[in-house]
Amino acid sequence: MAGILYRIGKVVGKVYTPSKPLGSKKAYVSTAVEIQYSRLWVRLAALGIDIGAFIPLVVLHFWLFSNSRVLAMVSCIVSPVLGLAYWVLMHWRFGQTFGKKVMKLKVTKRDRSAITLRQSLLRSCVDIAFNAFVIAGSLYALLSWPHDQWSTLSFWDRMGFFSQSLPDGNSFIQSLYFYWLLAELIVLLINRKRRALHDFVAGTVVISLRRPVNEPLN
Known about the structure:
This protein has helices at residues 2-11, 40-53, 55-67, 69-94, 98-102, 117-123, 125-143, 155-165, 170-190, 197-202; strands at 15-17, 29-31, 105-109, 204-208. By secondary structure, it is mainly α. The chain has two domains: 2-31, no CATH class; 40-208, no CATH class. Strands 1-2 form a two-stranded antiparallel sheet. It has a two-stranded antiparallel sheet with strand order 3-4. Mean pLDDT is 82; it is low at 1-32 and 213-218.
């Protein structure tokens, strides 16, 4: 009987264990083994930790930007690539970024197995496309400046001139990316498994590794 109940329990995602021997008149007590999906605030906290870890890189980027046009162009390429590589490779190799590890979250397939490199790339495909436009627009703006003008401007004047020199479609691309992020948030909030749009694209889910309050220790 216990073996039959166990097989039935596996089908419906639960494992039934008897609290008393088979001869007891008391009913069985069942313990559900369920996937704990991530909460919005936990995912935001993990994202905040990851962004905080990149603050030194941001400071270095602006320092390079203020010193040389050539270094600024190098930084405009390297900084986004490093950021994207961090998310893609960490999710692929470990299922976690540093922030997700701290918050005990993990990216998996829907069956809780490890994701592939392809899935990790698909999760970040929109970010990759957006950053490709950012890199191209930044290089266009920097190359449009006369070389001798760079040293005569203050840092804030450079930033203002840089913004004015970006391609005409830059604002449109930024608006599209903003609406994508908004759609990500809305979709994440309205489904039970808390999957964002990029999770549906890649066939992934973010689960919590924290032990539920009512989960037995044994």
